[in-house]
């Protein structure tokens, strides 16, 4: 491809940016409570399996698709020889999924800004657990507060994104992802000294399969893809800024391991805190906004603890949401003559409009995420099929092997992406329809 396109400043910069995209509300907010609802480590086990057999090959595939085409998500399907224009639909579906996610992601991320302010003002000090829970419910019911904080969060995204790829996204992701790991390590060490540590660990280690339904298994796949930012066009778009000497398989493996490690570390940090105060782990979506703030209040250094936690949450959310924004922004600038700023403004407006139902009511958020989970598996399936069967075989091999010493992994990878990944996704889809009684 001979078009001039911005590229990442450094290899490490890209790795931290990709980890930043992966680590987000998925690992920090969803994973802990979904683990709690689905039988602890039984769920975690599926999550890890899906990461390895579906996540890793697809991750490599998406980066290859992106680097080869050096285009936005829709065009990345269309630049290949002899592809029918209908493949562009998969790209558009991906854009839709990213927008639908942003529509709730920005609302929840806005809460983290509110909770940083609450932590700084020490407003929860001395309140009972019911009072703290109630204040979240009140906050959640306030349309103006939800909207204001969502807007604030979107403005943060715009400030980063307007600077472009290497001096905007990469520069800020590098900073926030590094800070995130330091804060996470501090919290994990702190959790080791809590009385509920042993109970928290055994909860994560001993599976309770009776609590895991087939819907739970689909959720584990959805969450594995979600936390790795796969099937949302992110890694294709980020891949389109890679240089030819970047080692794709190695980069994908590093990001995957770092993300898994951090996700488990977060669970290891959160569960002991919950158990130390006799709470149930399946406290649902309120887990980190209702239960944890109360738990923090009972612990030494409560203010520092809660500020660190919610800043961590904000950084995690921001490095992820900018990657989703980039999918849509890059796609628009790629397909039209639109400037980056204009594309950014249009994307933000769409997100605000799509986000309105989520601002108004919690139940819409559930409908939204269920819908996305469902569209997502099909996007994952078609993207995989495209990479495995529509990509020119010669070009695919060449792109895999460029810049890597692990060319010997090409054949095993090809086997996974041709057979194991699509079959696993298909099985999960079939299982899902059985759950619906179809
Ligand atoms: N991976 C991010 C998280 O876990 C969310 C995300 C999904 C980001 C899709 C980009 C694309 O929160």
Which helices and strands occur, and which strands form pairs?
Layout: H1 11-22, H2 25-37, H3 41-69, H4 73-78, H5 88-121, H6 129-141, H7 143-161, H8 165-192, H9 197-205, H10 214-227, H11 234-239, H12 248-276, H13 287-298, H14 302-335, H15 340-360, H16 362-390, H17 393-401, H18 410-435
Helix pairs in contact: 1-8, 1-12, 1-14, 2-10, 2-12, 3-10, 3-12, 3-16, 3-17, 3-18, 5-7, 5-14, 5-15, 5-16, 6-13, 7-14, 7-15, 8-12, 8-14, 9-12, 10-16, 10-18, 13-14, 14-15, 15-16, 16-18
The structure holds phenylalanine (PHE).
| Number of helical segments with 4 or more residues | 18
What are the segments in which pLDDT stays under 50 over at least 5 consecutive residues?
Answer: none
Distance between the termini: 46 Å
What is the name of the CATH architecture? Orthogonal Bundle
Describe the protein in words.
The chain is mainly α and 438 residues long. The chain has one domain (11-432): Orthogonal Bundle (Hydantoin permease), CATH 1.10.4160. It has 18 helices and no strands. It has helices at 11-22, 25-37, 41-69, 73-78, 88-121, 129-141, 143-161, 165-192, 197-205, 214-227, 234-239, 248-276, 287-298, 302-335, 340-360, 362-390, 393-401, 410-435. The termini are far apart. The model has no long low-confidence stretch (mean pLDDT 91). Phenylalanine binds at residues 21-22, 24-27, 101, 226-227, 229, 232, 234, 320, 323-324.
